[in-house]
Amino acid sequence: MGSQHAAQIPTSFGKELRACLRCSLVKTYNQFTDAGCENCPFFNMDQDSDRVLECTTPNFAGVIAAMEPPASWAARWQRISKFAPGCYALSVTGMLPEEMQAICEHNNVRYIPRN
């Protein structure tokens, strides 16, 4: 699997789940505020709880667990094969605010809306 660390697995599957608007990683609000997004550390969600609300959404459909993303055809199809192992939304509704898109660009990270 390489040296990539796994993302936190959601601690519950209720209404508190959110998906990252950039990578579609699914975790609880508290997990995002505690540890941020493993694929998008440049958003600093673990340092600013308002960022969690800006960079994630509760509006998503379906969840896929990717344990070895580089080896998974489903992960390649979902465009998550280069991300950390974890749980990902199949589709996400919403877009990153322009300020967060600028942060992606500043960090040479491509942002493709996942709608």
Automatic annotation (TrEMBL):
InterPro entries: RPABC4/Spt4, Spt4, Spt4/RpoE2_Znf, Spt4_sf
GO MF entry, a single one: zinc ion binding
Stretches assigned to the Spt4/RpoE2 zinc finger domain: 17-93
Location(s) in or outside the cell: Nucleus
Pfam families cross-referenced by the UniProt entry: Spt4 (PF06093)
Keyword Amino-acid biosynthesis: no
Keywords: Metal-binding, Nucleus, Transcription, Zinc, Zinc-finger
Primary location group: nucleus
GO cellular component: nucleus
SUPFAM superfamilies in the record: RNA polymerase subunits
Function: May regulate transcription elongation by RNA polymerase II. May enhance transcriptional pausing at sites proximal to the promoter, which may in turn facilitate the assembly of an elongation competent RNA polymerase II complex.
Family: Belongs to the SPT4 family.
Name of the protein this chain belongs to: Transcription elongation factor SPT4 homolog
